[in-house]
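Model it.
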Amino acid sequence: MNTEKITLSVAVTSKSKHKLGAVEAALNTLYPNAETTIQGYSSQSGVNEQPVNDEAEQGAYNRILSILSALSEAGVSPNIIQLVISIESGIFQTKKGWEDKAVVMVSDPDLETVVTQVSEGVIFPNHYVEEAQNRGFEQHTVGSVIAEMNPDVDGTDPHAFLTKDSETPVTRAALLESTLLRALSEYFGSTDQQSQ
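Modeled.
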């Protein structure tokens, strides 16, 4: 935890409450005394609605480019932003099966320092993945299929439902926050070394 007084202006490549909340929680953990402004923006990933494997990392990076371009076109100087944070969840084929993971990217607005971290995974059962794939990953996510088949489940956060009976139940927010903490720690470590 850092106790120095800093001011941070952060652009997040999403308006998702899960993502914005996780960014705020991670920054408050690392810099509890910081004056932080966090702004969520709509952005384009340029990949399927349900990213698969490498599409998640490409989508996260594309979202950074998308908002930097939109800010530039709107006449907003990138100098007012110190950090750009992008989170793109995707499904990854692993030895365990299909795992949902989040790719977190933290960057300066000039893209000179870009740090990428990937969250721990939550297994998505094959029948949900197959159904989303049959409907088309271009427009359907596995989370939305899970929610449709289980009406009490939030399609943007099926993690708690899928892990409720495990030894260590997890929420999407917890996965995002822990991954953001790693990414932000690495980013600030990288930028501190560059400034010395």
